[in-house]
């Protein structure tokens, strides 16, 4: 998910892009999921790499984990792109989680034809419809990888079930915090899906991206890279 911004970021920084537990390339998701299961796994990866603190970036579920890392003192700065968990108390988050479940089922059905789907502009647009509104710049191989990663995330149903019951606890990050949200986010609609964070993180810098979807690093990679670098500067 970060390949389109990687070249710009690597000019200035060494990157560590760990996969979360239960995701393709990540560690096995334990039998019991807790509010700290994912962040502890990322901390372990940082420890193994000899990294105490880092400039942290995350999107969606990864955005929530990035904020958790910041609250645990592991971030020098944090940039969260449409972080999950910002629903206001009493809000119905199940519609979003149902969309994730449906998207997972679609990618499982599409995996066999991933190369064909990615071979046309329309196929790429449809494959990335819940992530981005601008897809003309996205190479076919990126779309193939997104489809396959989604299809092979076999723990998605269990993670979605846990997410439906969790209250998404979060302590206040103790470092400069930048939150970026696209106004056309279909998975976590702005501003409703950010209401709790807007109250809980009043000192964060909030940036709206007009016409951008759920994954700014896919939708507008050059702009997103500059926003990440600007938060670090």
Describe this structure in words.
By secondary structure, the protein is α/β, with parallel strands linked by helices. It has one domain (6-232): Rossmann fold. 43% of the residues lie in helices and 10% in strands. It has eleven helices and four strands. It has helices at 6-10, 37-48, 61-71, 94-110, 114-117, 121-127, 140-151, 156-165, 195-200, 216-219, 221-232; strands spanning 54-59, 75-81, 177-182, 205-209. The protein has a four-stranded parallel beta sheet with strand order 1-2-3-4, sandwiched between helices. Strand 1, helix 3 and strand 2 (75-81) form a beta-alpha-beta unit. Helix 2 (37-48) crosses helix 3 (61-71), helix 4 (94-110) crosses helix 7 and helix 4 runs antiparallel to helix 8. The protein is globular, with a radius of gyration of 17 Å. The two termini are 23 Å apart. The model has no long low-confidence stretch (mean pLDDT 90).
Distance between the termini: 23 Å
| CATH class descriptor | Alpha Beta
- Unreliable runs, pLDDT <50, ≥5 residues? none
Relative helix content: 40-55%
Integer tally of domains: 1
Major beta sheet, strand line-up? 1-2-3-4
Global structural class: alpha/beta
Helix-strand topology string? HHEHEHHHHHEHEHH
Number of beta strands: 4
Query: CATH H-level name... which superfamily?
Result: Alpha/Beta hydrolase fold, catalytic domain
Number of helices: 11
Largest sheet: number of strands, sense, barrel closure? 4 strands, parallel
- Looking at the structure, what is the overall shape? globular
Task: Predict the CATH topology.
Answer: Rossmann fold
Question: What is the radius of gyration?
Answer: 17 Å
